[in-house]
């Protein structure tokens, strides 16, 4: 997807204005979502930055609410579903070809993940746009 297109810029501007999973409805049939995941790492003297985390650390990959989620390599859209007696089908399609690294880059914190510093832990935000499509199937 071309990030310079007017449509994409409009969607990105609205979606990225609030740091949560977002929804934008452009028409009754087009709904766009911005899925966000965070990648967490800890610094170890012997090995440097890595995925070896302490039990009190957030998982290596989380959503914005620090709930465990899949990595950007294994994250999948929700499966197609049928809703109600009218055979309403819901499908998902990625509108971005790949995950996009957040403009802020790595965000560094202290040993406890509470105070911003450049010492022991860090996280990186990734996001990707998807379209939710709904349609009715005649039986």
TrEMBL record:
Keywords: Membrane, Transmembrane, Transmembrane helix. It is found in: Endomembrane system. It comes from the Eukaryota. GO terms for biological process: peroxisome organization. Pfam families: Pex24p. GO terms for cellular component: endomembrane system; peroxisomal membrane. Residues 17-128 form the TECPR1-like DysF domain. This is TECPR1-like DysF domain-containing protein.
């Amino acid at each position: 997807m071309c990030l310079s297109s007017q449509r994409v810029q409009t969607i990105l501007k609205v979606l990225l204005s609030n740091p949560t999973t977002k929804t934008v409805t452009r028409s009754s049939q087009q709904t766009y979502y911005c899925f966000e995941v965070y990648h967490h790492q800890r610094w170890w003297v012997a090995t440097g930055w890595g995925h070896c985390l302490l039990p009190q650390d957030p998982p290596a990959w989380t959503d914005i609410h620090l709930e465990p989620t899949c990595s950007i390599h294994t994250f999948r859209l929700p499966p197609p579903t049928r809703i109600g007696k009218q055979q309403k089908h819901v499908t998902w399609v990625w509108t971005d070809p790949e995950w996009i690294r957040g403009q802020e880059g790595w965000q560094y914190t202290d040993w406890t993940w509470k105070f911003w510093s450049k010492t022991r832990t860090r996280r990186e935000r990734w996001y990707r746009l998807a379209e939710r499509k709904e349609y009715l199937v005649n039986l």
